[in-house]
Write a structure and sequence with these properties.
This protein is mainly alpha-helical. The chain contains eight helices and three strands, in the order αααβαββαααα.
C-alpha cells in the first residue's frame, strides 16, 4: 500500500459488515467463556498477560520513548499502543500493550481490549478497518465485563448450563442473517 493510499484509508470511516460484527461478538463470547470470566477472581489483565502479552502503563515510559513507540504501534489512537516486534537477542516475537493510565478504570479496560483485538485479529498495519474491528471488540468486551460485574449474568448462565448463551447468540445471529438475505 502506498503512503497516499494509507493516508486516504486513515481518513475514511469504516463500517463493519454485519457478518464481521457477528464474528467479533462470537470472538468475545468464546474468549470469555474459555476464561470463565464470571468467576469472582477474574482479571482481564491477567487473562491477556497469560497469553504472553506484556501490559504496561504509559507512566512507566520516558516521554520521548513513548513518542517513538507511537510510530510503530498498530493502533491509530494515542490512548494505547499495540506493539509486535522481534526481540533483538533471541529473535522471538514480543507482544506488548501500553495504555494511558490517567484514564478511568472502565476507559483503561476498553483501551486494553482495543489493543488486544489488534493482536487477536492479527492486524499488521494501521487502518480504518483495523480500528473499526478493535473498537467493536473493545466495546463488546467491556460491556460484557461491566454487565457481569453488576448483574452476574455469566455466573447465572454457567450454573444453568454454560452453552445456552453461546447457542442462543448463534441462533439469534443466524436468524438475523436469514432475514437480511430475504
Amino acid at each position: 500500500m502506498t503512503e497516499e493510499q494509507n493516508t486516504e484509508d486513515e481518513n475514511l470511516q469504516y463500517i463493519l459488515p454485519s457478518w464481521r460484527l457477528n464474528e467479533i461478538i462470537m470472538a468475545v463470547v468464546n474468549l470469555f467463556s474459555e476464561e470463565e470470566y464470571y468467576k469472582e477472581d477474574f482479571d482481564y489483565k491477567k487473562m491477556i498477560s497469560d497469553k504472553g502479552i506484556v501490559i504496561k502503563k504509559y507512566s512507566s515510559f520516558k516521554k520521548e520513548n513513548l513518542m517513538t513507540l507511537y510510530d510503530t504501534s498498530l493502533s491509530l489512537w494515542k490512548e494505547g499502543l499495540c506493539l509486535v516486534f522481534p526481540d533483538a537477542v533471541s529473535g522471538k516475537i514480543c507482544r506488548m500493550i501500553a495504555y494511558n493510565d490517567k484514564k478511568s478504570a472502565a476507559e483503561i479496560m476498553q483501551i486494553i481490549f482495543h489493543e488486544y483485538a489488534h493482536m487477536l485479529f492479527r492486524h499488521t498495519q494501521q487502518s480504518a478497518h483495523g480500528e473499526a474491528e478493535a473498537n467493536c471488540f473493545a466495546i463488546i468486551a467491556t460491556f460484557i465485563l461491566l454487565l457481569e460485574k453488576q448483574f452476574h449474568i455469566g455466573r447465572i448462565i454457567a450454573q444453568g448450563g454454560g452453552q445456552m448463551l453461546k447457542q442462543g447468540l448463534l441462533n439469534q445471529i443466524k436468524s438475523m442473517e436469514d432475514k437480511n438475505e430475504k
